[in-house]
Fold these 2 entries.
Entry 1:
Amino acid sequence: MSFLGSLGKKAVEKAYDLASKVEGGRDYLTSAANTVNSLVKGKDARVYLKPGNVIQFISRASNRSIQIVVAKETNELICDAIGGTGPFFPNAYWLVVCGQHGRYYFHNNYNYLAIKNGKIVIIPSSTSEKPPVEGEFRVQDVLGSAQAIYLESVHMPGYFISFDEEGTLGDEVKTKTKEKFSQLEIQLIAYGPGIQPEKDDHTIETSNEASPPSYWAAANASTSPASNEQSHNGNNAKSPSS
């Protein structure tokens, strides 16, 4: 990055810091910066953030998706960035919920991605509850990129969703830094109800891998006559050493 480019970036960061002290200021600056970046790059990195769309977030640090997993120590839901991409990884799905002022929430079966007390967490909820305030995000373009974004907490301005190269949650230093650790790309899985498909949606993940069989198909196969006959023959067969 050139010296002037570095100064420009620092000026933008300073403007965001000042705007956070004014009600609505951070939203206005985010919207303006995103609009300028889209015009310059000729592409909107947020094009798939439509209500009801199902997406995946790909961490630029780990090159894997953000997924929900169960912590071994506490048995609580947490997230990491070592998930797979495509339709066969539902624990890496995020449903887009659009809020006011261009803000967003993201949940998987009403388990919300959030930043609480400065830490990246998963907050379980339900259909009858409002989205948690800790799960509200501003989406900022990575200036100079046509694909990458940052997810900044509305509840805790200046904190971002971030992961390291191993896909583990970023520490407080990384969470408060707009660098590669916080850069994400959006992978579209499915359009929401009534959402008009984009003309250029070749970024939808397609896989040559065969879809895994359903539970019932696998269960029926294991109890089929052919399977039982093989099991019976196997039980009656004598070993070579007998």
Entry 2:
Amino acid sequence: MTQITPIKGFTNTPVTQSICVIITLLALSLSILQLKHIVRLAIDPYIVEYSQYWRIFTFQASVINESDYLLVVFLWFHFKNIERFYGSRRYLSVITIFAVYNAVVCFIVMCIGQLVSYYAVYVLKTLLLHRSSNIVYQSLLFNEVIPGPQGIISSLYICYGTYVPVSYHFKILLSNPMNSDQDQEQQSTSSSSKELNLTNHFPIHIIYTLLLLNNGTRSLIPCLVGLLLGKLHVYELLPGSKNWMINIYVFRFFVDPTKFVTTTISSIGLRLRSGYQSLNSSRDQGQPIQQAEFLPAEVEGEDVEEIVEDGRQQATQIRAETPVRPLGSQFLDTFRN
């Protein structure tokens, strides 16, 4: 029987683990070093006056307040199921695509919204109040967004609801339970407004709603843009999100930088010590050509994917032999994980 209970921790989810560690380190570093202004994005003054366009791609790097950090890390941890669905390398590729699209589209929406809002206010002042004033740029609703990966999480939120199946449903009664047969008949004929139908996804919906409303209007723009991009990705209408894959060496470095650097240095050292031998000279001497010991470090991306897939199949087989726990334990695991 296939196990449907959640797996604790970061089992087979190295990308999720790396993201949680990076977000924690960045948030602490920016707070300790007082560099939170680096990840802020505002049309005025950073773009209009200072022309700091690099902020378009850095404002999603880290959050700047504690409440956003807790909500973001909680959602990243629960989105590990999406990584199990996609695979680690594919999951990191999707996150990269969402990050680029959210940065560009969010900046365009901010620029257009700021201009439209400003000229709407100017027209209202001129036509209704009959005030003729010079055009002066002002900071309005679309001027600034909250720093953090809210847009990426919003896109993954759509993927979570689409690709992660519902394990169970349950109801919460909003009225006192009835014991007699007559009361039960009345209860069955009563409207469904007295009960609340929920699934095991309801903690994700609640936490995401808190993240959406946590910073007022500053968090609405990236979240709404992320939801739109997530819908386009689900319907396979987002260019590049279906076939593009991140480089295998970038993926290895992101997942385990220490192992990647150690393997690379050892491979370079072996090459420098052993040197290169001509293929023709080896044949002339009648010596068999031996493969280098560091060959596994240079396996192509497809071979790596096959090895990872074999490991996943073995893990799935082990999970299939584990008995399914009762529904009550599954319900408690929803809050523990």
